[in-house]
Amino acid sequence: MIDLRSDTVTKPSPEMLKAMMSAEVGDMVFGEDPSVNELEALAASMFGTEAALYCPSGTMTNQIAIKVHTRPGDEVICSRMSHVYQFEGGGIAFNSSASVALIDSLSGTFTADDVNGYINNHEDPHKAYTRLVEVENTVNRGAGSCWDFEELKRIREVCDKNSLSLHLDGARLFNAMAVDGRNPKEYGALFDSISICLSKGLGAPVGSLLLGKKDFIKQGARIRKVFGGAMRQAGFIAAAGIYALKNNLSRLGEDHRNAAAIASALENSPDVETVHYGGTNIVIFKVAGGSSAMDFLKKMKENGILASRVSATSIRMVTHLDVSEADTVKVCEYLGG
Ligand SMILES: Cc1ncc(COP(=O)(O)O)c(C=O)c1O
């Protein structure tokens, strides 16, 4: 099977497994796991942030960030299609008792002007207190679209003027940086907090990191405990993260080339109506005419290709390090491109 359902389906390579099996471990809750400490220090130094916090998932790092940045009744400005709003189980309300102001756009990106338009008057007691702006780079449901870094800088200025915090869901930030050519320190300097995932394009089996200032991360560690994410000998999985950061960044362009080839095969397919490709490793397309996504997926599965359903008529394909160029050629041949 060629599995294009998600970049989370990857399995550790033999080299990554070896690194995991030979990891030095200790009790992370006591601050004594050398591998976790090394991973956190490595990530913080890459991004130039004061500190980092290792967590089991990207959902947890995002939700910890929102919880630390807000108070009950505050409002978070984010895209309607953002992961934090759509796919974290209503966590903004559940964990932080915060409300949302949702910005609409096809790509899931927005502008500093958009943000300005959604900031409530802090003097008006009728209005929720706008406290946080959240952006996602790349945008999962925006077909892996990337942000314009200059626009992010303008959003930072708006946040500074209005005393708002700025959080980045960078589950696939390394995919974005492979396209925009920025380095992690530039992102680290722009945001109050960043979540990065090791378990997506980087190929680790589990793990995410929250980055920020020392005091923020200290508060985050308390919330991680409350959320049940304070693990013990987590060094075995942290070692996979260290391996991923050291070895799996430079190959992300391969995933992007494979996704671009699939996007262009889809463009040429008579069975496909529209293709949405944001330039990284995710393609979302709408099936043609009256056909359903389920039928399209069933036929692909019979031909050894797995993808995932986005809606009744649209499908998502994601490339990753367990999808080779040869696999991509097979997918393109199947699609007729
Ligand atoms: C953009 C984005 N943010 C956050 C997450 C959450 O990550 P996790 O599955 O590790 O909770 C995902 C997962 O797919 C994602 O795509």
Describe the protein.
The protein is α/β, with parallel strands linked by helices and 337 residues long. It has 14 helices and 13 strands. It has a 7-stranded mixed β-sheet with strand order 2-8-7-6-5-3-4, sandwiched between helices. Helix 1 packs across helix 11, helix 6 runs parallel beside helix 7 and helix 12 runs parallel beside helix 14. The mean pLDDT is 97. Bound molecules: pyridoxal-5'-phosphate (PLP).
Key attributes of the depicted protein:
single chain; 337 residues; alpha/beta; 7-stranded mixed sheet; 4-stranded antiparallel sheet; 13 strands; globular; binds pyridoxal-5'-phosphate
The proportion of residues forming helix, as a percent range, comes to 40-55%
Strand content: 15-25%
Q: Shape, please?
A: globular
Bound molecules: pyridoxal-5'-phosphate
Question: Uncertain spans, ≥5 residues at pLDDT below 50?
Answer: none
Oligomer: single chain
